């Protein structure tokens, strides 16, 4: 029986990255659909769940992607509402790589230092990866601050995470590197989640901070998000701090993505969202 993965993408073009990793994760065929919405997804879901007998439904699965995390979350909700009894297939949500990237980065940080009760700052955290990283850190017991150049966007992101995860995250406006340098003072944990090629901290902002224990930078496009952290860092000690670069924990991200795809075909009732993907990352890390 062929393993079929239906890729529902909320953008106008399905992500080629997700198609490649899906094949590497064990899918025999990936069937991509673009511009999928909660209003249009119904017939597509029905096609996945009514076509194979119960014992063979596990060979059909759904992957939800796209650049908009909230759109992906709404699409996941719409897909789940179509399921009933044993008429269901396994589903994975990873809009813009948010769940796998954040899960891999936070798993590496949590494996490096205890985080419960410590202050964690997620820089430029209103994007998909930043939101998931902040939520995962908060679920681990950290006191999380999320920065943005816009306080309104930061507040909105924090409200969405409270509604989704039940966690409290503090929004802070930080319009430039110096402002972000002030925010991280007294923090033990810093996760940089800014756009590719955008520097958020200079080395002088963090190198001498006595409380800072671990940093991770999700940006692999120069200039990196945190100056002084190398994209290849894998728990490298710099200025007395543990550093993780985008490629350093990206190896786990790719392995995690592939492992999650493989698990979709083990049963027909698996839902892989942030919590489930993070649990797998902790096992692998």
- How does the overall form come out from the CA principal axes? elongated
- State the secondary-structure class: alpha/beta
Instruction: Assign a percent range to the helix content.
Output: 40-55%
Number of structural domains: 2
CATH level-1 class of the largest domain: Alpha Beta
- Main sheet specs: 7 strands, mixed
Summarize model confidence as the mean pLDDT.
Answer: 97
What name does the CATH topology of the largest domain carry? Rossmann fold
Tell me the strand order in the biggest sheet: 7-6-5-8-9-11-10
The low-pLDDT segments are none
CATH superfamily of the largest domain: NAD(P)-binding Rossmann-like Domain
In the CATH hierarchy, the architecture of the largest domain is 3-Layer(aba) Sandwich
Give, in order, the helices and strands: EHEHEHEHEHEHEHEHEEEHEH
Radius of gyration: 19 Å
Strand content: 15-25%
How far apart are the first and last residues' alpha carbons, in Å?
A: 32 Å
Total helices: the number is 10
* Number of separate strands: 12
Please tell me about this protein's structure.
It is a single chain. The chain contains ten helices and twelve strands. With 285 residues, it is of the alpha/beta class. The chain starts with a strand and ends with a helix.
């Amino acid at each position: 029986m062929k393993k079929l993965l239906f890729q529902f993408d909320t953008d106008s073009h399905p992500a080629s990255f997700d198609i490649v990793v899906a094949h590497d994760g064990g899918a025999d065929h990936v069937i991509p659909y673009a511009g999928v919405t909660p209003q249009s997804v119904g017939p597509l879901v029905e096609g996945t769940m009514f076509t194979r007998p119960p014992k063979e439904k596990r060979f059909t699965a759904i992957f939800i992607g796209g650049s908009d995390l909230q759109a992906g979350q709404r699409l996941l909700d719409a897909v789940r509402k179509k399921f009933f009894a044993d008429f269901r297939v396994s589903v994975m949500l990873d809009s813009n790589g948010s769940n796998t990237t954040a899960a891999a980065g936070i798993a590496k940080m949590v494996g490096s230092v205890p985080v419960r009760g410590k202050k964690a700052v997620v820089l430029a955290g209103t994007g998909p990866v930043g939101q998931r990283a902040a939520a995962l850190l908060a679920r681990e017991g950290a006191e999380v601050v999320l920065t943005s150049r816009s306080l309104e966007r930061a507040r909105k992101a924090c409200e969405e995470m409270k509604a989704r995860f039940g966690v409290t995250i503090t929004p802070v406006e930080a319009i430039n590197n110096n402002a972000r340098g002030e925010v991280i003072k007294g923090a033990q944990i810093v996760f940089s989640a800014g756009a590719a090629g955008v520097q958020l901290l200079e080395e002088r902002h963090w190198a001498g901070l006595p409380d800072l224990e671990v940093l991770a930078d999700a940006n692999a496009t120069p200039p990196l998000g945190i100056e002084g952290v190398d994209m290849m860092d894998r728990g490298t000690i710099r200025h007395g701090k543990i550093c993780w670069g985008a490629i350093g924990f990206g190896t786990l991200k790719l392995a995690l993505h592939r492992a999650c795809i493989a698990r979709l075909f083990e049963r027909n009732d698996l839902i892989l969202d942030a919590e489930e993907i993070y649990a797998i990352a902790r096992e692998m890390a």
